Amino acid sequence: MRLLKSLRANILVGIVLTIPVVATVLIFDFLFRLATNWLPDNAFPRLQVVWNGYLLRFITLIAVLIFFYITGLLVRNFLGRRLYGLGDRILGRIPLIKNIYVTVRQVSASLFTQRKGLFKEVVLIQYPRKGLYSLAFITATAPENITQVICGGNREPTQDCVSVFIATTPNPTSGVFILVPRAETVPLQVSVPDALTFIMSAGAVHPGQTGVSEPTLLDKLEIWLSHRED
Fold this sequence. Notes:
This protein is of the alpha+beta class. It contains 9 helices and 5 strands. The two termini are 15 Å apart.
């Protein structure tokens, strides 16, 4: 019985640890073929037979990277920016195509959003109800018209509201956006990276705590298996 449990546990660990490696290889192979499969089969026949065609694929990949480099170089100057803006507006207005283009553009933009620059200050607020505190990030001062609505007619000249983002655990890329009076926030002497680590670890890694590394996938598997045996 003990041998059977050990056999099952080792097979499970082997499968779970191998899946990320296999998935990485498959995704890389897909992207590699996507970037190099656009040449016709009869193009450069002499290179087609060298290394089973991989030499031609690598040359094609280098050519694609050079194309991307030249495109980026041209787009980053004044004229290129104007042409990019024109093309962006045109693609954003074509029926059907605009739905795909705008969605992909927004996803691409979100990948490169500098959250460290977006989050200006780490604070505590009472959310989702009084008596419960949540870690939040101030992103900006709320517009004047919204502040007037929140604070009402008795608003003091120095009173303002702020936009805050409350990240979820363990994925801080999603969360809740709310508006609160600044007086109801409690400033914290915590950096944004430390606060994000605190959220991702569900409070296990404290801000400023050193010498603590996130458990690896293998560590988590060992803990899960030990709980199963108990």
